[in-house]
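Ligand-bound model needed. S-adenosylmethionine.
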Amino acid sequence: MATWYDHPEYFDMLFRDETEGEVKFFEKAFERIAKRKVKRVLEPGCGSGRLVVAMAAEGYEMTGLDLSESMLNYVNKQLKRKKLTAETVIGDMTQMDLPHKYDAAFCTFNTFRHLLSEKDAEAHLRSVANHLNKGGIYILGLHLLPLDAFEHAIERFTTNYGGTRVTTTIKVIEFDRRKRIEVLRVLVKATKRSGVIERVKSEFPLRVYTCRQLKSLFKKVDDVLELAAVHDYEYDIDETATFDDDLTEGVFVLRKR
Ligand SMILES: C[S@@+](CC[C@H](N)C(=O)[O-])C[C@H]1O[C@@H](n2cnc3c(N)ncnc32)[C@H](O)[C@@H]1O
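Prediction:
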């Protein structure tokens, strides 16, 4: 059975409704938190590129980087269809080697948690910092673990697009607080207009973070990135969030020193 990340179109459908609110937030954060004008922007782990495409449409010089060739092929197809340009690069976000410096970067909805060790997480943050101009910002969004986490949560979403009805079920099937890993199972059932049903199943690990663990990681890279603002998945630039154990959906704005 094919995996989730081999099907950018299903992945893209799930997050499509979030895109507009994220883009608005990014632009406000560029204005208010970056200490430079933002023109060139990087998305490490860009996936299906919904944000690369939306930001290119707003006039930013975008680069999307991802490990997955099928994701980047999908991004390039969307760009072509909308007559937009952006750079897409196959690469590992823990050791990026791009020819430009950027004014801003973003990585939302848990992509960062694909990095399973502290070493890789720190390497990623340093790699982003190396690619940012002074005063540029990195917007990082991820779920944090509440202290009383319900460890085998299940979520189900249904979306409709172009006559295809897609139900995505995400379940935590393994959870190890000591190793700081949870394994997610994603099941997609796509019912096409013709009645044909396609199923996609993926299982992948994500690193888990408590508030204390994320604060400790940010402290390790504080020589290059300062924590400039904390928000949540409401994406409201006027509402900051408190970085404590009650914060479960964090959007952190780090600024290059
Ligand atoms: C959740 S998806 C991307 C979502 C995208 N940021 C968005 O908000 O629409 C995660 C992506 O991270 C990519 N990825 C995972 N580990 C990576 C790494 N070490 N370097 C680059 N990309 C990576 C996967 O290939 C996948 O496309």
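The chain has two domains: 4-145+209-256, 154-207.
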